[in-house]
Design goal:
Elements (H helix, E strand, L loop, with lengths): L5 H9 L4 H50 L2 H24 L6 H32 L9 H32 L1
Helix pairs in contact: 2-3, 2-4, 3-5, 4-5
Length: 174
């Protein structure tokens, strides 16, 4: 992959650069880009791990809320926590430079599946605790609670993606 376009090479040539100097500068820039890509992959996998651990932690934090709250209070707590986690996900994953589209697609698929699975298990655990402790709270539908969490989790990412596309379109049209 070359860093210099033909016009840039011509400009440097006109300024008195030799062919060897231009090739050396191009080589240095190509090496730097390779290091940036490698570093971006490390940051990506680290961010992915942080988000996964964060989702597990959030699931555990929601356990007492699931036992105590019912109806709209529970869903409000779930939505607020999911929006916070979704914002963190969007912040960590979306702005990592030099990543291929497959990395973003992978994260977009894996994280919601893990979040959904975590909530599914935690709601089942909370329902079991409620029945064993003879709590009069109605058992929660694990599918609905998990779906609400994942939808709220996806909102910041979706908004960020739409915003970036709108910026790109505005840049292209001007």
């Amino acid at each position: 992959m070359t860093s210099f376009k033909m016009t840039e090479k011509q400009i440097l040539n006109q300024k008195g650069w030799t062919k060897e100097e231009i090739q050396e500068a191009q080589s240095v820039l190509d090496r730097a880009k390779h290091h940036d890509v490698h570093f971006s992959k490390i940051v990506f996998w680290s961010a992915l791990l942080v988000i996964i651990l964060g989702n597990i932690t959030v699931s555990l934090i929601l356990l007492p809320f699931l036992i105590v709250f019912n109806s709209w209070i529970l869903y409000s707590v779930v939505v607020i926590i999911a929006l916070v986690m979704g914002s963190l996900y969007s912040f960590l994953i979306m702005d990592i430079g030099h990543l291929e589209k497959k990395h973003h697609i992978l994260a977009t698929i894996i994280i919601p599946i893990i979040a959904f699975s975590n909530l599914l298990v935690i709601v089942l655990i909370s329902n079991t605790y409620m029945s064993e402790l003879a709590i009069t709270n109605t058992p929660h539908n694990q599918w609905i609670v998990s779906a609400v969490f994942v939808v709220a989790f996806a909102i910041p990412f979706t908004c960020h993606t739409i915003w970036k596309l709108a910026q790109k379109q505005r840049f292209i049209s001007h």
